[in-house]
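Dear colleagues,

As part of the handover before I leave the project, I'm documenting each prediction I ran so the next person doesn't have to rerun anything. This entry is a single chain, and its sequence is reproduced below.
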Amino acid sequence: MVLKESLIKKIIREIIEDFMDEANYPSNFNMEEFKNLKSFAARLRYCKENLQPIASGSGRYVFGIDADTVLKLAKNKKGVAQNETEYKFANDSYITIVAEVFDVDENFLWIEMERLNKCTWKKFENITGIDSSDFNLALIYYYYKHLSRNNYFNQKPDTYDEIVENEFFQDVVDLMANYDMPPGDLTKLSSWGITKTGEIKLIDAGLSQQVYDTYYK
């Protein structure tokens, strides 16, 4: 059977798109080999030898894969829980404000995610349309006013009524409400990054209230 030219072009385009969606790992990094490693020490050594170290927190190491992708490797149960939380976030309706997940270990030992560019408060304000100080104050006020039993925080910015109508702010408070997420990390500049298309997203969204209560208290 002879394929029509239009069908051939469609098949070629789909193959190219699939290839471009895959992370461009260094030639010396074999994903199947990495997936088969049995210990944390072996996984960490393999990543350190073959990937670019970016950051390290109390629960996870972050390695750069290419310009668009990072690998977050859990150090402990805390990191596993953070990976699982970010996976749940990214697969819900909040993909607009959470870095995209591309691949994940079935036990959440590691997670492959969208790589974001560094954010400044000035860029944050230009993209969201909200003053950063007002955003942080409004977020804390909203949390204690509507989502916490400890309603003792009564300070709010003068622009609060305008901020609560902002689409980005609404996405953030929806995330807090649906996943019982405290505002602490959401008010930190280091939690936010900028996508290649100029959107603000959470770089680190793994600290839900449950994770905090279980591993940080």
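The first strand starts at residue 52 and ends at 56. Residues 5-21 form the longest helix (17 residues).

All the best with the project,
I.
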